[in-house]
Fold each of these.
Amino acid sequence: MTVAATAAGAELPQPAAAGSGVFKSVCRSCHGGCGALLEVAEGKLIKVRGDPDSPLNKGRLCPIGTVTVDLVNHPDRLKYPLRRSGPRGKGSWERISWDAALEEISERVLAIREKFGAESIALGTGTGRHHIRWVSRFAHALGSPNWTEPGFAQCFHPRVNTCIQTFGDFPVSDFTSGVAPECMLFWGHNPVDSGPDGETRFNARDALEHNPRIIVVDPRQTELARRAEVWLQLRPGTDDALALAMINVIIGEQLYDADFVHRCTHGFEALAAHVQKHTPEWAEAITWVPADKIRAAARLFAKAKPAMLDWGCAIEHTPNCIQTIRAVSMLPVITGNIDVPGGWVFGMKGIGRFPSLIENLSPEMNAKRLGADRFKMLCGEGADLPAAHIPTLLEAMRTGKPYPVKAFLVFGNNTLSTYANSSQVLESLLKLDFMVCADLFMTPTAELADIVLPAASWPELDQIVGLPTVAANVVMAQQKVVQIGECRSDEEMFVALARRMKLPLCTEPVEDVLNQQLAAGGLGLTFAQLKQQGFAMPAMKYRKYEAGGFKTPTGRIELYSTRLEKMGYAPLPYYAEPPESPISAPQVFRDYPLVLTTGGRIPYFFNSEHRQLPNLRKAHRDPQADIHPDTAARLGIAKGDWMWIETRRGRMRQKARLTTGIDPRVINVEFGWWFPEEPAPEYGIWKSNANLLTDNQPPYDPAMGTYQLRALLCRVAKVEPEPAGASPR
Ligand SMILES: Nc1nc2c(c(=O)[nH]1)N[C@H]1C(S)=C(S)[C@@H](COP(=O)(O)OP(=O)(O)OC[C@H]3O[C@@H](n4cnc5c(=O)[nH]c(N)nc54)[C@H](O)[C@@H]3O)O[C@H]1N2
Ligand SMILES: Nc1nc2c(c(=O)[nH]1)N[C@H]1C(S)=C(S)[C@@H](COP(=O)(O)OP(=O)(O)OC[C@H]3O[C@@H](n4cnc5c(=O)[nH]c(N)nc54)[C@H](O)[C@@H]3O)O[C@H]1N2
Ligand code: SF4
Ligand SMILES: [Mo]
């Protein structure tokens, strides 16, 4: 980034920082949740510690949380608004005032709305941020149905929406009851490195202290897999087949909880008949997991009490996402582990529903949401909070069909890094008339914008945090303790923009909305009071269904989903082979003979973030891909060599990490890589970016529109020395 030296001061009032002292807050360097103590001296953040009072981390912080001071005070933080001063994406910028930035954004956006309709303005955001729902709120206030987030069809929300159809609510693992599960099943989830995804990594670690019997479903031998009694090392993308076979064993061997099933579920007989063909031997051929191991896992999970399922996003990265989730979610149901201590529970809802203002959209406008004609679980009636379908949105940017999308306002998403098929993402973004990017740092994506806005990081803003997410059994206050440059929280930006555009909604102060949410949660606290006490934890009630049943059409957990059936989707879970696999695409497999998975989380970085923090980077300098030593030897690759990993979409390079903990037929690559230390405007985004390999073309999950981030076909070759500075593309 090059910034012309035309300094301009802030015309908006600078909110007062907290001065000096130690303040309670909540870390949000990932999805957030760990209680934190922020030490401030003369308006500067000088120390961050884990809050020993927090039930979620009990005084601990992970490597990312530990370096918060480095993040907040980083010299490369964006500190004032910027306007592009040369051709798009060429890296020249001038400093402008907030006033000028707000004015220009308002004018451009309102002009586009006037000419092409509100739907031609799309909002984008990133995963699990403090402001994620505010992005939908602002879009709806503006009149647009098109807002999006790379996780909505691929991460967490498929589980949320599917569970709401099946259970009437979203269940989470019960880590705070004090009852230790006898068995823990980690499915496509590695929460000791990742999380929180309904829990914090510390809850998961604490549960392990009680020595549960562990089952892990993962193609990689993670730390958890090494500790597991049964490790199911499946072929990536075949989770649906594995789950169906486990259900087959539990029902076939009469290991299910007959009492719970008969009292509380709908469609058990239909499910039992449906899974009869899905024997462990049938699944072995598909999943590569020996039938005996499938039986052992099913028996262990069914016989242990309580047994806990802790699941992750790996099952949401293939186009059979909804049915895979449905199948996996049935394991705790048929074994009677629902709303019991140490099992799967529904939280107590200490925060009210977020006022997303979706009621501001007419039915016609809702129907215009990109993807709404097909993906009802993402964009329509089956979604808790409907969002636009990313590939359809990108197509509208590129082709103007079904209607033009002319502006993209991005608040906290590194689009070039985290959306599938990055080359096509670039092509789409370059077609826009107007792009805004609010971020903590200049990123390769922000370099494509017309206006860049400096966002506040978590110690610089007020918010409410509810964890376990959605169920919100612990409600915490995140509070502003410092002011960096002219940075503002995204929430404040939306209010300022709504006022500037004279929108009828989204203009009230942020704290009013926080108070509304708290009032609706019924804890009897205002935000100011919550800030004082740090967190609140409504007392947990178990087996709530005994009084009120389940909030589904049949009042029961719907193993056979009447809602999915009504929307035109399959009411019982089925197996679908990933579209680019050795079985479904043998002609591709001839040239790309390895199965690729991407994205297993790195404990030192959050998605595409934190590569500019030296204390984290020294623990994990380069992108690394897992390869079996036999495969590496065959390809002439040694430990630490740079390897080309190539799919039909493109190629990129990562360093070889040799491990026998991966099948010789499988490659795992890290995602989120770019190199802030390399020259602008690209910052090395095309070198090691996993999403040069992934696919955003059909087929998609029929209900959710999910595209393929995992279970693809690739080939690997050693990177031969090349001239310095040569572009890998
Ligand atoms: N190949 C592959 N691709 C994947 C995945 C995978 O496993 N494999 N995982 C997918 C999943 S599950 C997800 S959720 C997505 C995540 O994708 P993203 O949500 O895009 O991920 P991040 O890199 O965490 O965040 C994006 C940006 O937000 C900025 N930021 C941080 N805090 C704030 C803030 O408070 N305000 C603003 N304005 N900006 C902020 C960061 O600096 C960063 O540039 O990636 C998806 N992409
Ligand atoms: N430190 C850190 N924490 C994070 C993040 C981060 O980037 N860094 N990202 C956050 C985000 S956005 C999310 S969604 C969560 C994700 O966190 P998790 O849900 O834990 O997801 P991953 O670590 O991507 O994948 C979990 C495991 O799935 C395995 N896996 C890969 N392919 C398959 C498959 O086909 N089937 C099965 N069963 N397993 C497979 C991987 O090897 C990995 O060990 O973590 C969040 N927390
Ligand atoms: S796990 Fe997340 S919330 Fe906890 S310290 Fe690490 S980054 Fe912060
Ligand atoms: Mo995610």
Note: The longest strand covers residues 651-658.
Amino acid sequence: MRPVPRFRSPLRGPWLTSVFAVVLLVGMPILIITGLLDRVAYGPAQGLPVDVGLLQLPPFDWPTRPSWLFRLTQGVHVGLGLVLIPVVLAKLWSVIPKLFDWPPVRSPAQALERASLLLLVGSLLFEIVTGVLNIQYDYAFGFSFYTGHYIGAWVFVAAFAAHVALKLGTMVRSLRSRSLRRELATPLAETVAEPPDAHGLVAPDPAPPTMSRRGALALVGGGSALLAVLSVGQVLDGPLRHTALLLPRGRDHGDGPNAFPVNRTAAAAGIVAAATGADWRLTLPGAAPVTLSRADLAGLPQHTARLPIACVEGWSTLQTWTGVRLRDLAALAGVPQPASAFVESLEVGPFAQGTLNAGQVLDPDALLALQVNGADLSPDHGFPARIIVPALPGVRCTKWVRSIEFRET
Ligand SMILES: Nc1nc2c(c(=O)[nH]1)N[C@H]1C(S)=C(S)[C@@H](COP(=O)(O)O)O[C@H]1N2
Ligand SMILES: [Mo]
């Protein structure tokens, strides 16, 4: 392949590209698997707006144990996704001459390789942009984040698998061409270009180095470390939350029992005080519908559990919730062994309803919570009552609950 004279960095070459590649080869499968698991956690019952056809995952019931399961898969997915961004950008920089490969098509095989690269880079940038915008709350795109990010992920998985199959041998050979330990000991003054390569990555007339290879690796690693430090606070509670500079909801939430992140405030959800006052009733629809006031609920046996809320945006928090067990409500409604429960909120909109599977209803810590940390729920956290279930994605922990229908089939 003809090298492109325009790109003259003496650092560019198959070895450096392969170092970034091997990091991505380890990181991407973890990112993909945690992403798909999160999708399963949302569940087929979540009623995704678009039918994804063959890309539907085999539905299995997301478990309720360990209670931190979703907190882990979601935290790893968002955290690792952020940390890998500098590596992705560095790897793209390292292969930039390939984008200017000329003539663009020389053989059917090479055309196929270029097309797969276009899909690979395109889908990866799409996943990064939609993912980052989602955790920053900016649902700026005109399509559903869940569907877009999911379909983009499958395009990426296919292109990534093809790319690994085509390049694995080259990567291993290139990694063996130099010693990492020696590179880490090589200062700027002794930095020279890699020998000319068959891929056209190495500049034919390299410019003098302005940075050593170890400097370049430190720059990329430092970028990743900085992203890690700025976002880890959102998944940890306590004072570290103040360091979550990248996350708009990750930081300060005042004092008191209800001082933890709010996804959407009561005002933003259109919940008016009149609807949650003395006239509020919980309805359990069925053959003989049951209606309960908040005082009725408070008079039932109460159970307390320490459970996380983990949001798809990446933040999470562990709190102590008190309320009525969902399985007690199911028994009250005359459906002691429900196959599912359909929950509706006072709110109108995309978060207004959700379905729980049998395990999520029957878990002894699955609650219709009335209190958190010993105080009544605040309006923003779902007063008069909200769903909280171990390992259930935050988005399904419906606030301002109006009715729960326990279903036999
Ligand atoms: N009715 C309703 N319930 C809701 C939401 C909502 O917008 N409306 N947001 C969900 C999301 S995405 C999350 S992460 C949790 C957050 O709960 P919190 O705001 O009490 O922390 O509530 C969930 N329950
Ligand atoms: Mo969320």
Note: Strands lie at 282-284, 290-292, 303-310, 316-325, 340-345, 353-357, 367-372, 375-376, 386-388, 401-407.
